[in-house]
Predict the structure.
Amino acid sequence: MEILWFLIAMAMLAAVIGPVMMRRRAGIRLAAPGSPDAADPDTYGFVRQELLDVRLPGPDQDLLDVLDVVQRTQDWRAAAQLLAGTPKEGEVRWQRVQAFAGAASLELAQQPGTGGAWLRAWRSESPKDAGGAQVHAEFLVQQAWRTATAGTDEFRIILEEARSVCSEATLLAPGDPVPYITDLAVARGLGDSHEQFDQLWAKVIDRAPDHMGAHLAALHHLCEKWHGSREDADHFATTAAARAPRGSLLAALPLFAVYEHLPEVNLVGSFYQGAVVTKALEGALYAVHSARADDPMLAHVRHLLVLFLVRSERWAEAMNQLVHVDGHVGALPWTHSGDPAAEYTVYRALAVAGYEANGGSPATLLR
């Protein structure tokens, strides 16, 4: 028993001092903000923490303009018009549905009983609008995770309603993958069997075989903490990456699988320089370099790369990702934090400090 307690104590100690030791090895010392010795992200043109946009992973000005109108006027018609003009192919429609649903869910949390009234009006005044049904289904999913505890009756009731709305949305827009992708999150929450999941996944890939967002939703279901295992997730990710056409960000999927199975306590100092992480990192970097500059999922991959590159002490490469995504932090891994902007800012400061400690400066940073 004494040995067990000793091992637990050592693990806790490593969790506390590990990041500090990592920075010391790299010759990095984080100074207090405002200190003359501090590496200042402002000198790189980075956005101040309080101005970071936590709603989106990257810029979508049309969406932001419409969100502003909808939330200011509580009139849903601009949102319906934007979604009606957004093709069902690709990733943009899915991201916009998520953003509208998230905005309504956050409004309701801030103004219980009245927030998100525009979504209720949308559904009651235009019940046959496919975009409204898709946003409603995603809203219910986000509400389940935001307001209820997984496994409770309340949680299941909300998700069962979401599944019903997903079914309605599929009838309103045949061929649109979005309702099926939303249903993947429902399947995860309700604990669908492997057979049920496989049937649903077949419907998704029949409509959008290379949809990155859909693959990320499926990967969550297959992770060890949900209904699969590390091996299931790795197999799914590597298979998708192997068959991905050139220019597809699916080549980055193994890095997301690694992220989903990171150890809570890392006792191996070289973990982030190890073969598993390095291989996944190189795949993600290849995906980023070969993807279209306007790929709407590119920012998602870049944000995750920032975390892994900083932890791998690859400072210049981390900075090269930061210059592309800075300003928006609505993506993994930051959204797993209670304060995404603060979490992102810590990693950005580490990247700047590590970059400058190794001779970098604003003048040498490629943009």
Q: What stands out?
A: The chain is about 65% helix and 0% strand. Confidence is low (pLDDT under 50) at residues 1-28. Residues 2-25 form the longest helix (24 residues). The radius of gyration is 22 Å.
